[in-house]
Design a protein that fits this description.
By secondary structure, the protein is mainly alpha-helical. The chain contains seven helices and three strands, in the order ααααβαβαβα.
Length: 138
């Protein structure tokens, strides 16, 4: 996989110019932007969303936790969330079957560690979530 540095070297520009071109920054001339995009496509360049998350503080990921996907209401809800997320440029990390509080906490910790921009949770456990865990997700 080609890195941004390699793409910049190939295009004869700085990595900042590559980044700006791929983000439609108006400071990059249209000919340069098109040349960089063509090279990126030709060499199968993929942006590193982890790096973007570190730089911007946004991962473009939403965590969705549902007790089950096999029931019609949850399947419809899942379909709606996925459709809206994709339409707004988000990836959805879906977690299912968190029937115990311990499992639910493990999933929440993982979403927090990955810096999910949001978490939608419909717990399958019939107890309230610990306040300290929810505060970590802020």
């Amino acid at each position: 996989m080609m890195s941004m540095r390699q793409l910049a070297r190939l295009a004869g520009v700085s990595t900042a110019t590559v980044s700006r071109a791929l983000h439609d920054d108006p400071r990059v001339r249209s000919e340069t932007r098109e040349r960089i995009r063509a090279l990126a496509e030709q060499h199968h360049f993929l942006r590193n969303t982890l790096t973007q998350g570190v730089l911007t503080g946004h991962t473009r990921m939403i965590g969705l936790m549902l007790p089950a996907f096999d029931s019609t209401p949850y399947a419809q809800f899942l379909s709606g969330v996925l459709g809206e997320a994709v339409a707004h440029g988000y990836h959805v990390h879906v977690a299912e079957e968190h029937r115990t509080l311990e499992h639910l906490q493990t999933i929440l910790h993982r979403l927090i560690e990955f810096r999910a921009d949001g978490i939608i949770c419909r717990p399958g456990v019939h107890t309230s979530l610990p306040r300290n865990l929810l505060l970590k997700a802020r």
